[in-house]
Task: structure prediction
Amino acid sequence: MSQTVTQSWGSNEGTPFSLQPVKSLRLRTGRYIDAIVLNGARYGGTGGGETDVIHFDNDEYISEVVIRSGAWMDYLSFTTTDNGKEPSEVFGGGGGGNEIILKGIRVLGIGGVYEGVLNYLSLMYVKDYEPSTPVEGGRGLDFILDYLHPGQTITEYDEVNVRSLEAFEKTSQHMTSLTASVKAEYFGKASFSGETKIVNTTTETIRTEFERESRTARTVERTIPEGSVGLVFATGNLMKSAEGEYWMYPTGPVTNSQVALTDTEAVKDCYDLTGSLEGQMSSLKPLKKIKYGFDCY
Result:
């Protein structure tokens, strides 16, 4: 079964840089790794020659890494996978150090330590990664991410990017029991926009990024009246993991709605990630069916 692993190689002396998702990648190399250029920022010196740069597509990820290291990073090779497209690769360095080959992985983040060269490399990755497949007919579906009782307050954010992060943050609350492979794929989609720094776990990282962006966002608040329920929706795509688990990822921002407790049309054909909306809207009970493991009305 897949599992999330963090490993490091080299000498941990110098200036550290945090683990971060990879959106672009190139190397400066000669007899060793002079620098890694990650998301446009150079970590290391200016010696050696530059490799080509990989600009990652939304579904592209690093699936194979070769490392040679001792007191610093002697050689690196990164190979990507992107839904059956021709793989991309950057590599360079010398023949010193001990060789490590990582295959069948999905890299979540790269960090390390540098001085005049790259001294230390840290990788967070999923070992024995298995990608999910799209469910036929599972694109553009409506999902209920949360609901609010009468008397509670809905907070709406003006900025679309904040509401998009909110969709990922609320969805991630319902994914705690899924495999490391699924969480890695979900995190890859969530982290592709914004300058994300990885914090402990992928779920915590998404929450931290949302809290950071929402702190200064303009908001509108309204209180749910008696006889109504506040609903948080998102449009998303349905996926099936290699282990047979169904899961979704949002493809747009959240939308908030206030509906009457008896208004079942408002949630018709929606998938309920909370699994408990019928307790608030009792009129949904005779309409509920289980579809792809989710309550659906």
User: Anything to note?
Assistant: The chain has a mean pLDDT of 92. The two ends are 33 Å apart (CA to CA).
